[in-house]
Design goal:
Chain lengths: 307, 230
Amino acid sequence: MNNIVLKTKGLTKYYGGTLAVDHMDLEIPRGCICGFVGRNGAGKTTAIKLMLGLLNPTAGSSRLLGCDSSALTPAIRQRIGYVTEGHRLFRWMNIGGLEKFQRAFFPKQWDDRFFADMIEYFELSKKQKIKHLSNGQRAQVSLALALAPNPELLIMDDPTLGLDAAIRRQFLEGMIELIMRQGRTVLFSSHILGDVERVSDRIVVIDKGVLRANCSLEQFQKAIKKVILSFADSVPDLVNIDGVLHCKRSEKQLELTLVGTDDEKISEWAKSAGAENYNIIKMNLEDQFIEFTAPANDRRLFQWEER
Amino acid sequence: MRFSKLLRKELRECLPWMLLAAIVFFAFGGFFLRAEAYFESDRHYSRLSPGTAVDYYWLTYYSILNVTGPWLFFLSIGLGLVLGVRQFWIPNFTRTWPFLLHRSVSRKTILAAKLTATMIAFVISLGPVWVGLYWYASRPEVFAVPQTLRVFIEGWIFIMLGLVAYLGTALSALSTANWYTTKIFGLLLATVIIVTTLSQWTLAGIFTSIAVSVAILLVQIFDTFLRREF
């Protein structure tokens, strides 16, 4: 069995003269929970739609479960769950009607019990019409519809967008239901780093259409760190250390945000620069992401893949 | 099973408009037909001097089409426009295309379900009312002028023109071009077809113009739908 469920090669998309996705080379291994993060307008939705064959690439290619995205067969689509951005469902249908509609497309895989349990867990009724549901409730129905066929690959486009903290937590717990099933792969886009941190084991960072990182969450968290160096006299003019994302100077202190620089190198440079002492500060994922995708770091290429 | 699910969903979305068109046609077409039958047809008939040759034009002009034809024509065109908007324009705004398209059927099947639902919608909404009114008008004691088969067929041609309007709207809705360029092509072509058809007199000419134009619209719609980005 192929261990790569999603692969893009040079995937590029232009909308007129605007570059939305820029030569994206991405591989997602089977069985991981991958958080696909980026700022608003970074190209997450476009990339997902390209992967699902809903958009045509300007250049490059994409493969899902071994099949070219532009020619996904009904049989392959049956193995992929998709939660659309904004949870757009047919407003005139009720939940029960939507269930019947969706089940017809997954006749062998549909898990009636699971769907009923999810609806009950979310305290919804099958008689409720979609148009009468709140944004959060639509998100819950959307998730139940995507999970009930027990998909091999679940792709969710900003599923927690616009949801309050309690509903988001419930939603993520629902997601974990799927994660607990062996061998399932989840790719979900988000700009809420807390969600990514809670459920993902892998992170893909996209910024202005460019893939900036694709590695395990642990690796990403280890790679980006803040170092505060104290100097007896004055801060040196030249900061000649690799991987500087951000540099902030004060009279006797230098604050550096570094990426991919190991602790030994930091120690060596601190000595050579004449620092009295230095502290390596652990950052949370949100701060790491903000520093990593800060405009000043635009296209300062730091792509790394787990080999 | 999948096609029938899609078909039922599309029919359900068409249902309010189908019912509305059928009720309006029945109410107004029926009312004016009754009025014509009581007050007008004898007057038309009396204009004929004895021995005058009665041709098709005369029979068509002073027939049920004279009173119910405009209702049938405009309702049919209106229904076509509304269903085209409902099926192809509204999903652009409600952004439900991705949810509809990502399922275990081909895009061709999804489109075929939409087109089939519309054909059924036209046939079962305006069709039975037209047949009923024609049957009523054909009764000897109701209308002074005999109703011909040609009149009956022309009613169905009006219904087919509604389908042309639907296809034109669908093509325009699917086009991602700007309004001032080729997006308007679908609606423009549908208008040209309708005008051309109405100006034809022979049934062969009418059917040829409809068949050729519908074929062009269908090829365009399939091509656009299969290649379009959603």
